[in-house]
Amino acid sequence: MNELYTDASGNQLEILQLGSLQGGVTINAKVGQPYGTIHGTDYVYHENGQRIINETGGRAGYYQISSTNDNVIGNYNPDWIAGIRNTFTYKNFSLSFLLDGQHGGDVFSLDLWYGMGTGLYEETVGSTDLGNPKRDPIVQNEDGSYGPNSGGILYEGVFEDGTPNDLRVPGDRYTADGWARSPNARFVYDASYLKLRELSVTYNLPRTLIDQTPLTAASVSFIGNNLWIIDKNLPHADPEASQGAGNIQGWQSGVMPTVKNYGFNIKVQF
After folding, report:
1. Contacts of residue 107, Cβ cutoff 8 Å, sequence gap at least 6
2. CA quadruple 103, 110, 49, 39: dihedral positive or negative?
3. pTM for this prediction
């Protein structure tokens, strides 16, 4: 997008907001960026490329969050979409399948934005680098070092001076993950996927069974749709199940489980 937009008063704009969505993200058309960019808060990065951790204050041990929310943190347009259909035949049987997929594109997950903060997802439990449950209390020695039985979370990153983070944060409350201490960028995911979209097995009745009938051909098929998400990067949800259409895409909330469909088909010819 390289042309400026003009509003109703004739003023030129460098950005056109297509939608403002829950979680603090917006969908935009911005000059110099692909159509459909996702804007929001981002991490703050050290010159070495690592994410910066707060060293002092009430947010010590947590990631720094950008002071602006107009950072480009994604783009909902895929690089490409493709499908492959093939059919194998043996005697009176045929097996047909359809694979389709998407490469690229991004989606912001509001479900994970809130669900990680409320402890609903499996990622909020598990062991620390010390081998203890992350929801266990933080145990510190008199010298400030952590005991071998300490819980808590040690985020990967560096302080502003470039030294590695060594501060643990509690893992048993809403501030551990999710919206309370995380930038929007943390919950933007690659929307790529590969699916077994359709599978069908067909049996063509032999001529000997229909010679004495008005039929010239007959077949029976079993058909299944949306049977398997073979590969995806978005956890806990179908990347296709985002809310919105048209200009408002790349945002996901309240996603229901993917539904498999099964069918039975009888085809006759006279």
Report:
1. 74, 76, 188, 189, 191, 234, 239, 242, 250, 251, 252
2. positive
3. 0.87
Does the CA dihedral 121-229-246-76 come out positive or negative? Answer: positive
Please tell me the predicted confidence (pLDDT) of residue 233: 95
- Cα dihedral value 233, 234, 239, 241, nearest 10: 160
Measure CA of the first residue to CA of the last residue in the chain; give whole Å.
57
pLDDT higher than threshold 70 for residue 168: yes
Give residue 9's pLDDT. 64
- The token pair at 144 is 């400030």
Distance CA 231, CA 141 (A): 45
Average pLDDT, the chain: 91
Using CA atoms, how far residue 243 sits from 55, 133, 166, 187, 250, in Å, is 38, 35, 39, 16, 8
